[in-house]
Amino acid sequence: MIFKRKLLIPKEIKEMYPISEKGIAAKRQNDKNIEGIFTGSDDRLLLVIGPCSADREDAVIDYISRLRTLQDRVEEKIVIVPRIYTNKPRTTGAGYKGMLHQPNPQAHSDMLRGLISIRKLHMRALNETGFSCADEMLYPENHRFLDDLLSYVAVGARSVEDQQHRLTASGLDIPVGMKNPTGGDLSVMMNALRAAQSGHTFIYRNWEVETQGNPLAHAILRGYVDAHGISHPNYHYEDLARLCALYADSGLQNPAVVVDTNHANSGKQFGEQVRIAKEILHSTRHNADIRALVKGMMIESYLEDGCQKPGDGVYGKSITDPCLGWEKTERLVLDLADLWI
Prior knowledge:
CATH class: Alpha Beta
CATH topology: TIM Barrel
Structural class: alpha/beta
């Protein structure tokens, strides 16, 4: 291990790129709206939607600006939280790891530029569109670089068993979605929720910290892959009913699920997200418990359909998992607004 350089701490980068008073007010309102969905005081549908990974600032801001116009059209039925995922888990360690590592996907890793780039991107989204966005908490110790800008955090399928992720989630004051693990064992996810909703004392960034528990921690169903590498969905009516039963026996606060329409639920067939999203809403119309449990969906979407290799240079096309293009996304969101009752 080679120690290359000491990086700036979150406080220093926040002082360099402070959030505006307008941004603070917008995030406060967004947080209130989203919290209301999870506590049940707001009956709108939550959509955590956007690219699989944020790869270039101009395309991401273009995409989110379009979401702003769309949000205004569906505000009575839907609350949109854009995905700006700035760090990506890699199963083998190879491949694009996100803007945190490579603010320029064609250049070598530069973590200092990456930390600045991800903060500037989230700030642009907030200042220019009023959206405080979602990001994945891949590295718990990095959360404080963005904690004043985010309104939603996801803990991924590879991280949900990790103690530090669970304990850090317990100290956040925004909703944290805990995904089922890649192998599909829902007990792992439920244990993560118990940990996240409980208080703890632990070491965080060389501090002894104490948390009170996060009552907004909730489940994310994303499908799973079996021992033979075959994808299996867990968004069907029977899967949602089973999760209802698990929650009923758990004693957890604010039972809730956000269903990921891509990943193993779609077998990474991005176009299937349209059908899957509508099937989820169909299930909510046939079971009052499922209707109460389902708070929203995750949808992977960008400006162009599909994905590309990092060097292909197609504007607004994913360089990681394939995504739904803008025209299909817009149609889907409008349809979901009509179907949500």
